[in-house]
């Protein structure tokens, strides 16, 4: 039915390995039994309302593009859930190692990316079309990318290399295990090998050890 997917990233990131039983058994039932819940990530709850709000932002911005630039594909809602869960996992991994991303770092990274894409409007459109990131989520997306870089640097590696990918892969796996992620089954199941939802449609992150 649906292909396994998630959101492509500006920087080469990597998939985390998570213990398979976490998302495929009781955890899914835990989220599914909580009305209005899309996912439970540790003590934090991602609500259906929050997911739908982000999807609505995306659709409104996509609808404003010139005709023919975008046609919605199946799996947008699931892809959005997957992105929101992944963001929480990456944030937990960062905090667990005493790391943080400052607003100044986010601003600098965003400016750098905008220059590379020929300006802020071009960057925003690229993120919208390729990564399903609405304008209000760009800073958070940039913070996530910087956080993944810092996780790789814990072992003196660089994100996008085989060793750097393996480092972050392991740290995301540890974070996911600690958080006991539970996704509402109607959105899919949290993939233990790829750190994405098995259900939405769009490839997310390269496998552990794969350099970009």
Describe this structure in a few short sentences:
By secondary structure, the protein is mainly alpha-helical.
Helices and strands, in order, run as: HHEEHHHHHHEEE
| Annotation, overall tally of beta strands | 5
Given as residue ranges, the uncertain stretches (5+ residues, pLDDT < 50) are 1-26, 200-212
Q: What is the average of the pLDDT values? A: 79
Determine Rg (CA atoms, Å): 16 Å
Choose one word for the global shape. Answer: globular
Widest sheet, order of strands: 2-1-3
The residue fraction in helices comes out at 40-55%
Separate helix tally = 8
Query: What percentage of the residues does DSSP assign to strands (E)?
Result: 5-15%
How does this structure look, described?
The chain is mainly alpha-helical and 212 residues long. The protein has eight helices and five strands, in the order H-H-E-E-H-H-H-H-H-H-E-E-E. The longest helix has 21 residues, at 76-96. Residues 1-26 and 200-212 have low confidence and may be disordered.
């Amino acid at each position: 039915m649906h292909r396994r997917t998630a959101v492509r990233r500006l920087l080469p990131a990597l998939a985390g390995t998570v213990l398979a039983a976490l998302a495929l058994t009781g955890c899914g039932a835990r989220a599914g039994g909580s009305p209005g819940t899309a996912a439970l990530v540790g003590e934090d709850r991602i609500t259906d309302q929050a997911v739908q709000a982000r999807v609505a932002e995306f659709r409104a911005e996509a609808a404003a593009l010139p005709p023919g630039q975008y046609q919605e594909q199946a799996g947008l809602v699931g892809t959005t859930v997957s992105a929101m869960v992944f963001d929480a996992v990456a944030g937990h991994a960062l905090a667990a190692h005493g790391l943080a991303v400052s607003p100044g770092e986010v601003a600098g990274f965003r400016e750098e990316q905008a220059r590379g894409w020929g300006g802020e409007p071009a960057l925003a459109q690229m993120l919208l079309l390729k990564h399903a990131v609405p304008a209000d989520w760009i800073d958070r997306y940039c913070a996530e990318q910087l956080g993944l870089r810092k996780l790789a640097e814990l072992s003196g590696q660089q994100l996008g290399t085989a060793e750097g990918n393996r480092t972050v892969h392991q740290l995301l796996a540890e974070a996911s295990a600690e958080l006991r992620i539970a996704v509402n089954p109607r959105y899919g199941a949290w993939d233990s090998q790829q750190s994405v939802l098995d259900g939405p449609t769009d490839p997310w992150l390269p496998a552990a050890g794969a350099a970009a």
